[in-house]
Amino acid sequence: MKSLNIILTMLALIGGMTACNDELDVQNPNNQTTYDFGNTESDLQEAVIACYNRIRLEGTFARVGYTLDAVRGDEVWNSSQQWYLEYDNLNSPGTIEIGDMWPWRDCYHVVNRTNFVLSKVDGVNMSEDSYNKIAGQALFLRSLAYYELATYYQTVPLITDYASYSDINTMYASNNTQDEVFDQIEADLKKAMQILPSRDAGGEFAKGRATSGAAAGYLARALMFRHKYSEAYTVLKDIIAGVYGHYELTADYGDNFREGSAYENNSESLFEVQYMDYGTGGTDEEWTPVNISSQATQGHAVESNYASQELGSWGDLAGAPWLYNLFRKENCTDDRLDPRLYWTLVTFEDKYSSYTGLKTAAYPNGDPRCNTVYQKDITATPLSNSAQGGISIAKFTNARNNIYSSITTGLHCGINLRLMRYSDVLLRAAECENEINGPTQTAIDYINIVRERVALKDLKLSDFPSKDALFEQIANVERPKEFGCENGRGIDLLRWGFFYDADRLNQLVEHGYYKRDGKASTDELTAATADDSSFKYYYKGHEYFPIYQSTLNANPHLVGNSANKNEDNGPAFLAKWTVHPIVK
Fold this sequence. Notes:
This protein is mostly helical. 43% of the residues lie in helices and 3% in strands. Strands 1-3 form a two-stranded antiparallel sheet. A two-stranded antiparallel sheet has the order 2-4. It starts with a helix and ends in an 8-residue tail after the last helix.
Protein backbone atom coordinates (compact mmCIF):
# COMPACT_ATOMS: atom_id res chain seq x y z
CA MET A 1 0.00 0.00 0.00
CA LYS A 2 2.86 2.36 0.90
CA SER A 3 4.50 1.66 -2.49
CA LEU A 4 1.23 2.36 -4.27
CA ASN A 5 0.87 5.69 -2.46
CA ILE A 6 4.40 6.64 -3.45
CA ILE A 7 3.70 5.80 -7.11
CA LEU A 8 0.44 7.76 -7.13
CA THR A 9 2.15 10.78 -5.52
CA MET A 10 4.92 10.73 -8.11
CA LEU A 11 2.39 10.52 -10.95
CA ALA A 12 0.46 13.46 -9.49
CA LEU A 13 3.65 15.52 -9.25
CA ILE A 14 4.64 14.68 -12.82
CA GLY A 15 1.15 15.53 -14.06
CA GLY A 16 1.19 18.82 -12.18
CA MET A 17 4.59 19.71 -13.57
CA THR A 18 3.40 18.87 -17.07
CA ALA A 19 0.31 21.00 -16.62
CA CYS A 20 2.47 23.89 -15.45
CA ASN A 21 4.69 23.55 -18.50
CA ASP A 22 1.63 23.59 -20.77
CA GLU A 23 0.31 26.70 -19.06
CA LEU A 24 3.62 28.52 -19.46
CA ASP A 25 3.41 28.00 -23.22
CA VAL A 26 0.16 29.99 -23.44
CA GLN A 27 0.75 33.39 -25.04
CA ASN A 28 -0.99 36.42 -23.56
CA PRO A 29 -2.54 38.22 -26.56
CA ASN A 30 -2.57 41.46 -24.57
CA ASN A 31 1.16 41.37 -23.93
CA GLN A 32 2.60 41.11 -27.40
CA THR A 33 6.01 42.41 -28.38
CA THR A 34 7.39 43.69 -31.66
CA TYR A 35 8.86 40.20 -32.19
CA ASP A 36 5.49 38.45 -32.31
CA PHE A 37 3.31 41.36 -33.53
CA GLY A 38 3.07 42.65 -37.07
CA ASN A 39 3.09 39.34 -38.86
CA THR A 40 -0.44 39.58 -40.24
CA GLU A 41 -2.29 42.09 -42.34
CA SER A 42 -4.63 42.76 -39.42
CA ASP A 43 -1.68 43.56 -37.14
CA LEU A 44 -0.26 46.03 -39.63
CA GLN A 45 -3.60 47.74 -40.13
CA GLU A 46 -3.65 48.35 -36.37
CA ALA A 47 -0.03 49.50 -36.43
CA VAL A 48 -0.82 52.10 -39.10
CA ILE A 49 -3.59 53.50 -36.91
CA ALA A 50 -1.04 53.73 -34.11
CA CYS A 51 1.16 55.80 -36.44
CA TYR A 52 -1.68 58.28 -36.98
CA ASN A 53 -2.12 58.46 -33.21
CA ARG A 54 1.36 59.95 -32.90
CA ILE A 55 0.56 62.97 -35.08
CA ARG A 56 -2.17 63.88 -32.58
CA LEU A 57 0.15 64.55 -29.63
CA GLU A 58 1.24 67.81 -28.02
CA GLY A 59 4.56 67.79 -29.78
CA THR A 60 3.13 67.09 -33.21
CA PHE A 61 -0.20 68.73 -34.01
CA ALA A 62 -2.36 68.71 -30.87
CA ARG A 63 -0.81 71.86 -29.43
CA VAL A 64 2.86 72.83 -29.37
CA GLY A 65 4.04 71.26 -32.60
CA TYR A 66 1.30 73.04 -34.53
CA THR A 67 1.56 76.48 -32.94
CA LEU A 68 5.36 76.74 -32.81
CA ASP A 69 5.58 77.42 -36.52
CA ALA A 70 2.75 79.93 -36.30
CA VAL A 71 4.57 81.95 -33.64
CA ARG A 72 7.79 81.72 -35.66
CA GLY A 73 5.95 83.54 -38.43
CA ASP A 74 5.42 87.28 -38.72
CA GLU A 75 1.62 87.29 -38.43
CA VAL A 76 1.47 85.85 -34.90
CA TRP A 77 3.08 87.05 -31.66
CA ASN A 78 3.36 85.71 -28.11
CA SER A 79 0.76 87.86 -26.35
CA SER A 80 1.07 86.11 -22.98
CA GLN A 81 4.82 86.90 -22.98
CA GLN A 82 5.29 83.58 -21.20
CA TRP A 83 5.03 80.22 -22.98
CA TYR A 84 6.51 80.32 -26.49
CA LEU A 85 8.24 83.65 -25.83
CA GLU A 86 11.69 82.35 -26.76
CA TYR A 87 10.29 80.84 -29.96
CA ASP A 88 8.51 84.06 -30.86
CA ASN A 89 11.73 85.98 -30.21
CA LEU A 90 13.79 83.31 -31.99
CA ASN A 91 16.38 83.03 -29.26
CA SER A 92 15.71 79.85 -27.28
CA PRO A 93 18.75 78.75 -25.23
CA GLY A 94 18.11 75.06 -25.96
CA THR A 95 16.98 74.17 -22.45
CA ILE A 96 13.20 74.64 -22.80
CA GLU A 97 11.27 71.41 -23.22
CA ILE A 98 8.18 72.65 -25.04
CA GLY A 99 9.92 73.62 -28.25
CA ASP A 100 13.40 72.17 -28.00
CA MET A 101 12.25 68.67 -27.08
CA TRP A 102 8.52 67.96 -27.43
CA PRO A 103 8.20 68.14 -31.25
CA TRP A 104 11.49 66.21 -31.54
CA ARG A 105 10.22 63.50 -29.18
CA ASP A 106 6.80 63.08 -30.74
CA CYS A 107 7.95 63.23 -34.36
CA TYR A 108 10.42 60.45 -33.61
CA HIS A 109 7.53 58.46 -32.14
CA VAL A 110 6.00 58.67 -35.62
CA VAL A 111 9.30 57.68 -37.25
CA ASN A 112 9.66 54.71 -34.89
CA ARG A 113 6.19 53.33 -35.58
CA THR A 114 6.31 53.84 -39.32
CA ASN A 115 9.73 52.17 -39.46
CA PHE A 116 8.19 49.19 -37.66
CA VAL A 117 5.40 48.92 -40.23
CA LEU A 118 7.83 49.21 -43.13
CA SER A 119 10.12 46.58 -41.60
CA LYS A 120 7.24 44.07 -41.51
CA VAL A 121 5.07 44.78 -44.52
CA ASP A 122 7.22 43.02 -47.13
CA GLY A 123 7.06 39.75 -45.20
CA VAL A 124 3.28 39.55 -44.78
CA ASN A 125 1.03 37.82 -47.30
CA MET A 126 -1.70 40.20 -48.44
CA SER A 127 -3.31 41.64 -51.56
CA GLU A 128 -1.48 44.26 -53.60
CA ASP A 129 -4.16 46.81 -52.68
CA SER A 130 -3.67 46.19 -48.94
CA TYR A 131 0.10 46.30 -49.29
CA ASN A 132 -0.03 49.61 -51.16
CA LYS A 133 -2.29 51.22 -48.60
CA ILE A 134 -0.29 50.05 -45.58
CA ALA A 135 3.14 50.83 -47.01
CA GLY A 136 1.97 54.08 -48.61
CA GLN A 137 0.49 55.45 -45.40
CA ALA A 138 3.63 54.57 -43.44
CA LEU A 139 5.85 56.27 -46.02
CA PHE A 140 3.70 59.40 -46.02
CA LEU A 141 3.58 59.67 -42.23
CA ARG A 142 7.32 59.10 -41.93
CA SER A 143 7.95 61.85 -44.47
CA LEU A 144 5.52 64.16 -42.65
CA ALA A 145 7.45 63.62 -39.40
CA TYR A 146 10.80 64.24 -41.07
CA TYR A 147 9.43 67.35 -42.83
CA GLU A 148 8.55 68.76 -39.41
CA LEU A 149 11.88 67.68 -37.90
CA ALA A 150 14.00 69.12 -40.72
CA THR A 151 12.14 72.44 -40.83
CA TYR A 152 12.17 72.79 -37.04
CA TYR A 153 15.60 71.38 -36.12
CA GLN A 154 17.55 71.57 -39.40
CA THR A 155 20.05 68.68 -38.96
CA VAL A 156 18.48 65.59 -37.43
CA PRO A 157 19.27 61.85 -37.32
CA LEU A 158 17.84 60.02 -40.30
CA ILE A 159 16.67 56.59 -39.10
CA THR A 160 14.87 54.42 -41.64
CA ASP A 161 15.77 50.88 -40.51
CA TYR A 162 13.77 49.51 -37.59
CA ALA A 163 16.62 47.13 -36.78
CA SER A 164 18.66 50.18 -35.79
CA TYR A 165 16.82 50.27 -32.47
CA SER A 166 18.27 46.91 -31.40
CA ASP A 167 21.84 48.23 -31.22
CA ILE A 168 22.73 51.16 -28.98
CA ASN A 169 25.41 52.27 -31.44
CA THR A 170 22.88 52.73 -34.23
CA MET A 171 19.97 53.77 -32.02
CA TYR A 172 21.98 56.75 -30.81
CA ALA A 173 22.44 58.10 -34.31
CA SER A 174 24.39 61.12 -35.44
CA ASN A 175 23.01 64.14 -37.29
CA ASN A 176 22.32 63.99 -40.98
CA THR A 177 22.46 67.08 -43.13
CA GLN A 178 19.20 68.79 -43.96
CA ASP A 179 19.71 67.85 -47.62
CA GLU A 180 20.07 64.16 -46.70
CA VAL A 181 16.82 64.29 -44.74
CA PHE A 182 15.01 66.01 -47.60
CA ASP A 183 16.38 63.45 -50.06
CA GLN A 184 14.68 60.76 -47.97
CA ILE A 185 11.47 62.78 -47.68
CA GLU A 186 11.32 63.13 -51.46
CA ALA A 187 12.01 59.42 -52.01
CA ASP A 188 9.31 58.37 -49.53
CA LEU A 189 6.72 60.74 -50.97
CA LYS A 190 7.43 59.77 -54.58
CA LYS A 191 6.80 56.14 -53.72
CA ALA A 192 3.76 56.94 -51.58
CA MET A 193 2.10 58.97 -54.33
CA GLN A 194 2.55 56.05 -56.74
CA ILE A 195 1.00 53.38 -54.52
CA LEU A 196 -1.64 55.17 -52.45
CA PRO A 197 -5.15 55.50 -53.87
CA SER A 198 -6.47 58.90 -54.85
CA ARG A 199 -9.18 60.57 -52.80
CA ASP A 200 -11.67 59.54 -55.51
CA ALA A 201 -10.60 55.90 -55.83
CA GLY A 202 -10.05 55.53 -52.10
CA GLY A 203 -13.71 55.90 -51.15
CA GLU A 204 -14.28 55.68 -47.39
CA PHE A 205 -10.61 54.83 -46.88
CA ALA A 206 -9.61 58.26 -48.21
CA LYS A 207 -11.62 60.16 -45.60
CA GLY A 208 -9.02 61.17 -43.08
CA ARG A 209 -6.15 59.00 -44.31
CA ALA A 210 -3.16 59.78 -46.49
CA THR A 211 -3.86 59.57 -50.21
CA SER A 212 -1.77 59.98 -53.34
CA GLY A 213 -2.91 63.62 -53.41
CA ALA A 214 -1.61 64.20 -49.88
CA ALA A 215 1.74 62.69 -50.84
CA ALA A 216 1.91 64.76 -54.02
CA GLY A 217 1.07 67.95 -52.15
CA TYR A 218 3.77 67.39 -49.56
CA LEU A 219 6.25 66.41 -52.25
CA ALA A 220 5.69 69.80 -53.87
CA ARG A 221 6.28 71.46 -50.51
CA ALA A 222 9.50 69.51 -49.98
CA LEU A 223 10.76 70.33 -53.47
CA MET A 224 10.00 74.02 -53.07
CA PHE A 225 11.84 74.16 -49.77
CA ARG A 226 15.00 73.47 -51.79
CA HIS A 227 13.96 75.74 -54.67
CA LYS A 228 13.31 72.85 -57.08
CA TYR A 229 10.60 74.86 -58.74
CA SER A 230 10.43 73.00 -62.05
CA GLU A 231 10.01 69.62 -60.36
CA ALA A 232 7.48 70.99 -57.91
CA TYR A 233 5.52 72.70 -60.68
CA THR A 234 5.11 69.42 -62.54
CA VAL A 235 3.62 67.81 -59.43
CA LEU A 236 1.36 70.79 -58.71
CA LYS A 237 0.01 70.88 -62.27
CA ASP A 238 -0.79 67.17 -62.00
CA ILE A 239 -2.73 67.80 -58.78
CA ILE A 240 -4.65 70.62 -60.48
CA ALA A 241 -5.34 68.36 -63.49
CA GLY A 242 -6.90 65.73 -61.22
CA VAL A 243 -4.20 63.08 -61.61
CA TYR A 244 -4.42 62.38 -57.86
CA GLY A 245 -8.14 62.89 -57.49
CA HIS A 246 -10.50 65.82 -57.81
CA TYR A 247 -9.81 68.86 -55.61
CA GLU A 248 -11.54 72.22 -55.64
CA LEU A 249 -11.96 75.22 -53.36
CA THR A 250 -14.96 75.12 -51.07
CA ALA A 251 -17.50 77.79 -51.92
CA ASP A 252 -17.29 79.08 -48.34
CA TYR A 253 -13.77 79.75 -47.05
CA GLY A 254 -15.04 79.10 -43.51
CA ASP A 255 -15.81 75.47 -44.27
CA ASN A 256 -12.10 74.80 -43.83
CA PHE A 257 -12.30 75.71 -40.14
CA ARG A 258 -15.62 74.24 -39.10
CA GLU A 259 -16.21 71.04 -37.14
CA GLY A 260 -18.32 68.13 -38.32
CA SER A 261 -18.58 65.62 -41.13
CA ALA A 262 -20.27 68.14 -43.41
CA TYR A 263 -17.11 70.26 -43.46
CA GLU A 264 -14.12 68.14 -42.52
CA ASN A 265 -12.21 66.11 -45.16
CA ASN A 266 -13.87 68.30 -47.77
CA SER A 267 -13.10 68.91 -51.43
CA GLU A 268 -10.32 71.37 -50.58
CA SER A 269 -8.46 69.21 -48.06
CA LEU A 270 -5.38 67.32 -49.20
CA PHE A 271 -4.56 66.20 -45.66
CA GLU A 272 -5.84 67.00 -42.19
CA VAL A 273 -5.29 65.71 -38.68
CA GLN A 274 -8.40 63.94 -37.39
CA TYR A 275 -9.92 64.86 -34.02
CA MET A 276 -13.16 63.66 -32.47
CA ASP A 277 -15.94 66.24 -32.43
CA TYR A 278 -16.27 68.22 -29.21
CA GLY A 279 -17.82 66.16 -26.40
CA THR A 280 -17.75 62.83 -28.23
CA GLY A 281 -14.45 61.58 -26.80
CA GLY A 282 -13.60 60.59 -23.26
CA THR A 283 -12.54 62.77 -20.36
CA ASP A 284 -8.86 61.86 -19.89
CA GLU A 285 -6.46 64.58 -21.02
CA GLU A 286 -3.23 62.85 -21.92
CA TRP A 287 -0.53 65.46 -21.77
CA THR A 288 2.25 62.89 -21.78
CA PRO A 289 3.42 60.96 -24.84
CA VAL A 290 1.85 57.74 -23.48
CA ASN A 291 -1.55 58.45 -25.04
CA ILE A 292 -3.06 55.01 -24.51
CA SER A 293 -6.21 55.74 -22.52
CA SER A 294 -9.40 54.39 -24.06
CA GLN A 295 -11.10 57.39 -22.44
CA ALA A 296 -8.87 60.07 -23.98
CA THR A 297 -10.56 63.32 -25.01
CA GLN A 298 -9.05 62.93 -28.50
CA GLY A 299 -9.14 66.65 -29.19
CA HIS A 300 -6.50 69.36 -29.56
CA ALA A 301 -5.54 72.41 -27.51
CA VAL A 302 -4.91 74.91 -30.31
CA GLU A 303 -7.94 76.96 -29.21
CA SER A 304 -6.50 77.14 -25.70
CA ASN A 305 -3.48 78.94 -27.16
CA TYR A 306 -5.50 81.22 -29.46
CA ALA A 307 -8.55 82.37 -27.47
CA SER A 308 -8.70 85.19 -24.92
CA GLN A 309 -7.56 84.67 -21.33
CA GLU A 310 -10.60 86.61 -20.14
CA LEU A 311 -12.78 83.86 -21.57
CA GLY A 312 -10.85 81.09 -19.84
CA SER A 313 -8.17 80.21 -22.38
CA TRP A 314 -4.41 80.60 -22.03
CA GLY A 315 -4.22 83.45 -24.53
CA ASP A 316 -0.64 82.63 -25.48
CA LEU A 317 -0.72 83.65 -29.15
CA ALA A 318 -2.36 86.59 -30.90
CA GLY A 319 -2.64 87.89 -34.44
CA ALA A 320 -0.28 90.67 -35.49
CA PRO A 321 -1.78 94.13 -36.17
CA TRP A 322 0.07 93.95 -39.50
CA LEU A 323 -2.12 91.02 -40.59
CA TYR A 324 -5.31 92.79 -39.55
CA ASN A 325 -4.39 95.91 -41.51
CA LEU A 326 -3.37 93.83 -44.51
CA PHE A 327 -6.94 92.54 -44.66
CA ARG A 328 -8.36 96.06 -44.30
CA LYS A 329 -6.45 97.42 -47.29
CA GLU A 330 -8.73 95.68 -49.79
CA ASN A 331 -12.47 95.03 -49.71
CA CYS A 332 -14.53 92.63 -51.77
CA THR A 333 -16.08 93.73 -55.06
CA ASP A 334 -19.42 94.30 -53.23
CA ASP A 335 -17.61 96.36 -50.56
CA ARG A 336 -17.81 93.64 -47.91
CA LEU A 337 -14.74 92.92 -45.83
CA ASP A 338 -12.62 89.99 -46.92
CA PRO A 339 -14.40 87.04 -45.19
CA ARG A 340 -10.98 85.58 -44.41
CA LEU A 341 -10.52 88.34 -41.83
CA TYR A 342 -13.68 87.14 -40.09
CA TRP A 343 -12.37 83.57 -39.97
CA THR A 344 -8.82 84.52 -39.00
CA LEU A 345 -9.06 87.18 -36.27
CA VAL A 346 -11.65 87.96 -33.58
CA THR A 347 -12.48 91.61 -34.18
CA PHE A 348 -15.64 93.68 -34.31
CA GLU A 349 -16.45 95.20 -37.68
CA ASP A 350 -19.65 97.04 -38.60
CA LYS A 351 -19.51 95.51 -42.06
CA TYR A 352 -19.84 92.01 -40.61
CA SER A 353 -23.56 92.77 -40.39
CA SER A 354 -23.80 91.92 -44.08
CA TYR A 355 -22.89 88.31 -43.24
CA THR A 356 -26.50 87.49 -42.39
CA GLY A 357 -27.27 84.26 -40.63
CA LEU A 358 -23.78 83.72 -39.24
CA LYS A 359 -23.16 83.25 -35.54
CA THR A 360 -20.20 85.44 -34.81
CA ALA A 361 -18.29 86.73 -31.84
CA ALA A 362 -17.96 89.99 -33.72
CA TYR A 363 -21.61 90.96 -33.21
CA PRO A 364 -22.25 93.27 -30.23
CA ASN A 365 -24.31 92.31 -27.17
CA GLY A 366 -27.93 91.43 -27.69
CA ASP A 367 -27.71 90.13 -31.24
CA PRO A 368 -29.19 86.60 -31.28
CA ARG A 369 -26.57 85.54 -33.80
CA CYS A 370 -23.82 86.27 -31.33
CA ASN A 371 -21.62 83.38 -30.27
CA THR A 372 -22.78 82.42 -26.77
CA VAL A 373 -19.26 82.22 -25.37
CA TYR A 374 -18.54 85.83 -26.26
CA GLN A 375 -22.06 87.28 -26.04
CA LYS A 376 -21.70 88.68 -22.53
CA ASP A 377 -18.38 90.38 -23.12
CA ILE A 378 -17.87 91.30 -26.76
CA THR A 379 -18.58 94.92 -27.60
CA ALA A 380 -17.39 97.16 -30.40
CA THR A 381 -13.92 96.72 -28.88
CA PRO A 382 -13.27 92.96 -28.59
CA LEU A 383 -11.57 91.44 -25.58
CA SER A 384 -7.81 91.53 -25.51
CA ASN A 385 -6.17 88.15 -25.88
CA SER A 386 -4.22 88.66 -22.63
CA ALA A 387 -3.37 91.27 -20.01
CA GLN A 388 -0.59 92.44 -22.33
CA GLY A 389 -2.94 92.86 -25.28
CA GLY A 390 -3.45 91.17 -28.62
CA ILE A 391 -6.13 90.21 -31.13
CA SER A 392 -7.48 86.70 -30.53
CA ILE A 393 -7.08 84.19 -33.36
CA ALA A 394 -10.33 82.74 -34.68
CA LYS A 395 -9.12 79.85 -36.83
CA PHE A 396 -9.84 76.37 -35.50
CA THR A 397 -11.66 77.80 -32.47
CA ASN A 398 -15.18 78.08 -31.12
CA ALA A 399 -15.22 81.83 -31.84
CA ARG A 400 -16.65 81.07 -35.26
CA ASN A 401 -18.18 77.64 -34.63
CA ASN A 402 -20.52 78.33 -31.68
CA ILE A 403 -20.46 74.72 -30.52
CA TYR A 404 -20.19 75.13 -26.77
CA SER A 405 -21.15 77.79 -24.25
CA SER A 406 -17.91 78.06 -22.24
CA ILE A 407 -14.28 77.48 -23.09
CA THR A 408 -12.54 74.55 -21.42
CA THR A 409 -8.79 74.60 -21.79
CA GLY A 410 -7.01 71.43 -22.76
CA LEU A 411 -7.32 68.73 -25.38
CA HIS A 412 -11.02 69.22 -26.14
CA CYS A 413 -11.34 71.09 -29.44
CA GLY A 414 -12.57 68.75 -32.18
CA ILE A 415 -12.01 70.83 -35.32
CA ASN A 416 -9.74 68.90 -37.67
CA LEU A 417 -6.52 70.76 -38.38
CA ARG A 418 -6.21 71.11 -42.15
CA LEU A 419 -2.48 70.77 -42.83
CA MET A 420 -2.70 71.26 -46.59
CA ARG A 421 -5.49 72.76 -48.66
CA TYR A 422 -6.03 73.08 -52.40
CA SER A 423 -5.61 76.84 -52.16
CA ASP A 424 -1.99 76.11 -51.19
CA VAL A 425 -1.59 74.06 -54.38
CA LEU A 426 -2.86 76.99 -56.47
CA LEU A 427 -0.70 79.64 -54.79
CA ARG A 428 2.35 77.38 -54.95
CA ALA A 429 1.70 76.79 -58.65
CA ALA A 430 1.59 80.57 -59.09
CA GLU A 431 4.88 80.90 -57.23
CA CYS A 432 6.58 78.20 -59.31
CA GLU A 433 5.30 79.67 -62.58
CA ASN A 434 6.59 83.06 -61.50
CA GLU A 435 9.99 81.70 -60.50
CA ILE A 436 10.41 79.89 -63.81
CA ASN A 437 8.76 82.24 -66.30
CA GLY A 438 7.37 85.18 -64.38
CA PRO A 439 5.61 87.38 -64.33
CA THR A 440 2.98 85.67 -66.50
CA GLN A 441 -0.77 85.60 -66.93
CA THR A 442 -0.73 81.93 -65.96
CA ALA A 443 0.62 82.80 -62.52
CA ILE A 444 -1.96 85.57 -62.18
CA ASP A 445 -4.73 83.14 -63.14
CA TYR A 446 -3.82 80.72 -60.35
CA ILE A 447 -3.90 83.56 -57.83
CA ASN A 448 -7.21 84.87 -59.11
CA ILE A 449 -8.91 81.52 -58.53
CA VAL A 450 -8.15 81.92 -54.82
CA ARG A 451 -9.17 85.59 -54.78
CA GLU A 452 -12.45 84.97 -56.60
CA ARG A 453 -13.57 82.57 -53.87
CA VAL A 454 -13.71 85.54 -51.47
CA ALA A 455 -14.97 88.03 -54.10
CA LEU A 456 -11.79 90.07 -54.39
CA LYS A 457 -11.02 91.94 -57.59
CA ASP A 458 -8.92 90.01 -60.11
CA LEU A 459 -5.27 90.93 -60.33
CA LYS A 460 -3.93 92.18 -63.66
CA LEU A 461 -0.60 91.19 -65.14
CA SER A 462 0.07 94.82 -66.08
CA ASP A 463 0.26 95.68 -62.36
CA PHE A 464 3.35 93.49 -61.92
CA PRO A 465 6.27 94.64 -64.05
CA SER A 466 8.74 92.12 -62.64
CA LYS A 467 9.10 88.69 -61.13
CA ASP A 468 10.08 90.35 -57.85
CA ALA A 469 6.89 92.42 -57.81
CA LEU A 470 4.65 89.39 -58.29
CA PHE A 471 6.63 87.44 -55.69
CA GLU A 472 5.98 90.27 -53.20
CA GLN A 473 2.25 89.96 -53.87
CA ILE A 474 2.31 86.20 -53.36
CA ALA A 475 4.56 86.20 -50.31
CA ASN A 476 3.27 89.19 -48.38
CA VAL A 477 -0.34 89.61 -49.51
CA GLU A 478 -1.92 86.46 -50.93
CA ARG A 479 -0.34 83.81 -48.72
CA PRO A 480 -0.69 85.59 -45.34
CA LYS A 481 -4.33 86.45 -46.02
CA GLU A 482 -5.18 82.92 -47.14
CA PHE A 483 -3.16 81.06 -44.50
CA GLY A 484 -2.74 83.63 -41.72
CA CYS A 485 -2.26 82.11 -38.24
CA GLU A 486 -2.01 78.57 -39.62
CA ASN A 487 0.98 76.25 -39.42
CA GLY A 488 3.39 76.95 -42.30
CA ARG A 489 4.26 80.66 -42.42
CA GLY A 490 7.49 80.17 -40.47
CA ILE A 491 8.59 77.49 -42.93
CA ASP A 492 7.84 79.89 -45.79
CA LEU A 493 10.15 82.49 -44.24
CA LEU A 494 12.90 79.86 -44.06
CA ARG A 495 12.65 78.75 -47.68
CA TRP A 496 12.49 82.34 -48.95
CA GLY A 497 15.63 83.27 -46.98
CA PHE A 498 14.04 86.26 -45.27
CA PHE A 499 16.34 85.84 -42.27
CA TYR A 500 19.45 86.23 -44.46
CA ASP A 501 18.77 89.62 -46.04
CA ALA A 502 18.94 92.85 -44.01
CA ASP A 503 15.98 94.46 -45.79
CA ARG A 504 13.82 91.35 -45.45
CA LEU A 505 14.72 90.97 -41.78
CA ASN A 506 13.78 94.59 -41.17
CA GLN A 507 10.50 93.88 -42.97
CA LEU A 508 9.84 91.04 -40.53
CA VAL A 509 10.51 93.44 -37.65
CA GLU A 510 7.90 95.81 -39.10
CA HIS A 511 5.36 93.01 -39.59
CA GLY A 512 5.95 91.86 -36.02
CA TYR A 513 5.22 95.17 -34.27
CA TYR A 514 2.81 94.89 -31.33
CA LYS A 515 1.62 96.88 -28.33
CA ARG A 516 1.42 95.67 -24.75
CA ASP A 517 -1.45 98.00 -23.86
CA GLY A 518 -3.95 95.42 -22.66
CA LYS A 519 -6.17 96.03 -25.68
CA ALA A 520 -7.02 94.19 -28.89
CA SER A 521 -5.22 96.93 -30.76
CA THR A 522 -5.76 97.09 -34.51
CA ASP A 523 -3.67 100.21 -35.08
CA GLU A 524 -1.20 100.07 -37.93
CA LEU A 525 2.04 100.27 -35.96
CA THR A 526 5.41 101.81 -36.71
CA ALA A 527 8.71 101.88 -34.88
CA ALA A 528 7.54 105.06 -33.17
CA THR A 529 4.15 103.72 -32.04
CA ALA A 530 4.87 100.05 -31.32
CA ASP A 531 6.07 98.74 -27.97
CA ASP A 532 8.14 95.99 -29.49
CA SER A 533 8.67 93.41 -32.24
CA SER A 534 9.67 89.84 -31.59
CA PHE A 535 12.06 89.86 -34.56
CA LYS A 536 14.24 92.48 -32.86
CA TYR A 537 15.49 89.68 -30.61
CA TYR A 538 16.39 87.21 -33.35
CA TYR A 539 19.75 85.45 -32.89
CA LYS A 540 21.48 84.20 -36.02
CA GLY A 541 20.79 80.51 -36.55
CA HIS A 542 17.62 80.61 -34.43
CA GLU A 543 15.29 80.62 -37.39
CA TYR A 544 15.54 76.93 -36.49
CA PHE A 545 14.85 75.69 -32.98
CA PRO A 546 17.80 74.35 -30.96
CA ILE A 547 18.10 70.66 -30.19
CA TYR A 548 17.32 70.14 -26.52
CA GLN A 549 20.51 70.14 -24.45
CA SER A 550 19.54 67.04 -22.49
CA THR A 551 19.08 65.18 -25.78
CA LEU A 552 22.58 66.23 -26.83
CA ASN A 553 23.95 65.12 -23.45
CA ALA A 554 22.30 61.70 -23.73
CA ASN A 555 23.52 60.98 -27.27
CA PRO A 556 27.31 61.14 -27.70
CA HIS A 557 26.94 61.02 -31.51
CA LEU A 558 24.64 64.05 -31.74
CA VAL A 559 25.83 67.64 -32.14
CA GLY A 560 23.96 70.92 -31.93
CA ASN A 561 22.47 72.69 -34.93
CA SER A 562 22.84 76.33 -35.98
CA ALA A 563 20.63 77.50 -33.11
CA ASN A 564 22.71 75.66 -30.51
CA LYS A 565 25.83 77.26 -32.00
CA ASN A 566 24.35 80.73 -32.83
CA GLU A 567 25.67 80.06 -36.32
CA ASP A 568 24.69 82.20 -39.31
CA ASN A 569 23.02 80.12 -42.05
CA GLY A 570 23.00 83.06 -44.44
CA PRO A 571 26.26 82.39 -46.31
CA ALA A 572 25.30 78.77 -47.07
CA PHE A 573 21.80 79.79 -48.23
CA LEU A 574 23.05 82.64 -50.41
CA ALA A 575 25.69 80.42 -52.00
CA LYS A 576 22.86 78.36 -53.53
CA TRP A 577 19.90 80.71 -53.86
CA THR A 578 18.93 84.36 -53.90
CA VAL A 579 16.49 86.35 -51.78
CA HIS A 580 13.92 88.41 -53.65
CA PRO A 581 14.44 92.13 -53.02
CA ILE A 582 11.56 94.05 -51.46
CA VAL A 583 9.18 95.69 -53.93
CA LYS A 584 6.99 98.35 -52.37
